[in-house]
Amino acid sequence: MKWQHGETWYRIVGDLSSAKTPVVVLHGGPGAAHNYVIAIADAIASTGRPAILYDQLGCGLSTHLPDAPSEFWTPELFMEELTLLTQHLGIADNFAIIGQSWGGMLGMQYATFDRPGLKALIVADSPASMAIWSSEAAKLRALLPVEVEAALKAAEAANDYTSAEFQAAMDIYYQRHVCRIPFPQDVLDSFAQIEEDPTVYHTMNGPSEFLCIGSLKSWDIHDDLHKIAVPTLLINGAYDEATPGMVQEIHRRIPDVLWEQFPLSAHMPHVEEPERFSRIVNGFLDSKLN
User: Fold this and answer.
1) What is the average pLDDT score of the chain?
2) Which residue, of 79, 231, 259, 264, has the greatest Cβ tally within 10 A?
3) pLDDT at 52 over 90
4) Which of 51, 108, 91 has its CA nearest to residue 282?
5) What band does 139 get if pLDDT is binned at 50, 70 and 90?
6) What gap in Å lies between CA 38 and CA 270, rounded to an integer?
7) % of the chain residues with pLDDT over 70
8) DSSP of the chain, one letter per residue?
């Protein structure tokens, strides 16, 4: 899809001519690209419901803009991209969204506006406030081994996040709170996307999971969540960065909402507990949509 800022790559999984309402899959990061959520699209398409994967501007197979000023990268930019994509695909009057991590943040904010064509929303592993995200991350970090915390502090003091010691420390955090099974290739591919071009992640988030100093630092949509007027499913893992306390604050604000927690998962239930994820997600979609 061509638009004023470049090209947005997308792929349709399944058949858009199906009678079933299609689902647009919003990946996380920001800037992680679609690779690690391919499993979500495949799970949805396995029921005959089409799913749309795409790379948000600035990553993956879409146009990269490494020289864009920091103020360019905003949730409003990505909401515009999403709207244009649904129009381009001819589904703007009938679609659902599933967003993972940053994708769920984007999906929630998108749904707080009047979107007549949006019929359902699934939010997987997402906060509605970066201040709360950072606060919960600090609690999880406090439970890490002493030597891991020392490596993280050393990297922060030196403002150097490239050392082997820092990467090893982050790997331990990832194994506890991001994905508790060996990373599948699709997940590794998405991590590689951010390493190859960290522009969007660094600009909007910051240098690590613990330092949100980018443009999302003060992002908070809690006061707007009551405006979400479509059936909504919240998902998180028991060991998730998106902690139960975090999700509870979202759950109590959205009028028509269900919440499923995955007991064996961290931040990626779709790869950690794929069979249960598919059953829960498709059950919700089939109960709410054509």
Assistant:
1) 96
2) 231
3) yes
4) 51
5) very high
6) 10
7) 100
8) -EETTEE--EEEES-TTSSSPPEEEEP-TTT--SGGGHHHHHHHHTTT--EEEEPPTTSTTSPP-TTS-GGG--HHHHHHHHHHHHHHHT-TTSEEEEEETHHHHHHHHHHTS--TTEEEEEEES--SBHHHHHHHHHHHHTTS-HHHHHHHHHHHHHT---SHHHHHHHHHHHHHHT-SSPPPHHHHHHHHHHHH--HHHHHHT-SBTTB--STTTT-B-GGGGGG--S-EEEEEETT-SS-HHHHHHHHTT-SSEEEEEETT-SS-HHHHSHHHHHHHHHHHHHHH--
Contacts of 201-204 spanning 24+ positions with Cβ under 8 A: 201/29, 201/30, 201/31, 201/32, 203/70, 203/73, 204/30, 204/31, 204/73
What is the pLDDT, as a whole number, of residue 209?
82
Average pLDDT over residues 187-216: 92
* Higher pLDDT pick, 224 / 207: 224
- Calculate mean pLDDT across residues 86-104: 98
Q: Which two tokens stand for residue 65?
A: 């803009």
Query: Residue for token digits 């999700």?
Result: 247
Task: Give the chain's domains with CATH numbers.
Answer: 2-288 (3.40.50.1820)
In this prediction, residue 41 has a pLDDT band, given cuts at 50, 70 and 90, of very high
Active site residues: 101, 240, 267
